[in-house]
Amino acid sequence: MEACIKALDEQTDEATKQMLQAVVNRKRKFKKYKQNHLMTVNACLIISMMFLLYIYFFIAKPYSYSFFSMFSVFVNSSVNFVCLVLSISMYGYMIVLKKKKDKAEKEFHALRCEIIDKSKHLWKKDSSWNSRHKVFEMMKKNFDINLYHENK
User: Pick from 16, 22, 10, 19: which is nearest to 128 by CA?
Assistant: First the structure.
């Protein structure tokens, strides 16, 4: 558990601390998938552009007089097949990471909204209800998690 969550005063019970830690973990998971997806998108674009430029300058331009000759030159080289498979597999991996990122974002947002909805039950006492803004400020400052409003 994070030190700043552990250090919360006695007005926040252990179950609430566990929920706060869970939302922090989900935020980290979402950020990790978001970063990996962005890196994969960039790699896919770079590989695809380099492959298309290679095809244009070394296959399409010199053999533009006949489609059959372009196709023959493309098929005869195993490097073209490897580059094509690499581009397609990078695109597929990008789609898989996009789905994982979207799922992690939904999980994070759902748990964050659950904490917001249950805040009346989590901080029942008047003294703890009045001091819950300290917890919300700590979560916003330390982890960039907004618990004030449900909107992203």
Answer: 10
> How many Å apart are CA 16 and CA 114, to the nearest integer?
11
Instruction: Answer whether residue 152 shows pLDDT above 70.
Output: no
pTM of this structure: 0.86
**Domain residue ranges of the chain, discontinuous segments joined by +:** 3-143
Within 13 A of 11's CA, how many CA atoms are on the CB side?
Answer: 14
Asked if residues 27 and 143 have their Cβ atoms less than 8 Å apart, the reply is yes
CB-CB contact of 6 with 135 (8 Å): no
Cα 52 to Cα 68: distance, rounded to the nearest angstrom: 18
**Which residues 6+ apart lie within 8 Å of 144 measured at CB?**
27
